Amino acid sequence: MRAVAHNSKSPCINAFGMQNESSTIITLDAYPVYCPQNRSLLTLDVLNPHYRETEGEVSEAQSKPTPLPFLTVSRGVGFKVVVMVARNRIKERLIKGKCSEEDTSDYVYTNTNCKKACTKKEIEGIVMETLRNGIGAKTALGYGAFNT
Question: Which of 28, 34, 35, 121 is the most buried (most CB within 10 A)?
Answer without folding.
Answer: 35
